[in-house]
Amino acid sequence: MATRPRDLYAVLGVDRKASQEDIKKAYRKLARQYHPDRNPGDSAAEERFKEVGQAYDVLGDADKRRKYDRGGVGVVGGRPGGGGGPGGFDMGSVTDILSDLFGGGGGGARRGGGTGTASRPRTERGRDVEAEVSLGFEQAMSGAQVSVDVPMATTCQTCKGSGAKPGTSARSCPRCHGRGVEADSQGLFSISQPCSRCHGRGVVIDDPCPTCQGAGQNHTVKHYKVNVPAGVQDGSRVRVAGKGEPGRNGGATGDLYVVTRVSPSPVFARKGEHVEIEVPLTIPEAIRGAEVEVPTVHGRKRVRVPAGTRHGTVQRLRGEGPPRLGKTGPPARGDLHIRFVIDVPATLSREQRKAVDELERVMDGDPRADLLARAEEPRT
Description:
- Helix content is about 25%, strand content about 25%.
- It is α+β, with helices and mostly antiparallel strands and about 375 residues long.
- Helix 2 (about 20-35) runs antiparallel to helix 3 (about 45-60) and helix 4 runs antiparallel to helix 5 (about 95-100).
């Protein structure tokens, strides 16, 4: 029985209708989990890392993904004449489709040899890296420049990233002829997988670099100063382009993502793009109204309290909140939500008790009378 191709969506653990952003997130998560640096000596993790990388090579590129979806390569349960998509795949040359997706000449190399032409090693984009920084609430509101130490792999300066000892060079892999993948044709199916000789690199190194042992990279700690924009929240991710790990074989450099950890404010509570503050009122202020001074994220402001304000009433001050991170056009800031709370004293002096008794005398009526009457109404 022919071996069925592996569904690339299943490799990344995403649905076929997943967005490009969801595919990217799934790849980053799996790549970090199975990266060889985190799993030294684990051959199974290394193979999984390469498998995830190859799946993302296809699904992470919108054009390649469309070709893959039309061709149905790797879809379990395909049958002759079934058409593209989940129910089957077109009866074209599956080997040609794989060759187009993964790169390389037509009629790709088969396991154990082939006629493919030699090519340059495949370029690989550098890995994205992530670091956390701690900020105070005021810094998050106004923005800040912070120092970040980021452990990462960098290009080996001895071999300039080739992995080969200076004075020597890597040679094209004789098994995959430089493509980095092998295609094994089994009847109607063609399975592509990383080359068993070069492990997907497309080249073999006979005399490895003594500094990096053939890896082409060394581990170091980079020190950066990052400008964190005003308005970040706890958990915001600030992208710093081109400050991740360098790519291989001329590939693009990855990015640095700075995750902000913001200390809570003793006064303000963050509510998305807005902030909230509790402002106490005395009973007389709530009854007859007042003008009170309240703090904002960038100063103070006097606000009018309407007469008859109830406990928990919220008043909104437009544009008095935090800067709107990543948003263009007005308003440039969120809002400040003022929640008024009635300050009821726990103890009363003799004079205060007398005043309360007089207030009770002049305030006729039972505020619960209507409630009790409605509760006693006949129910139909």
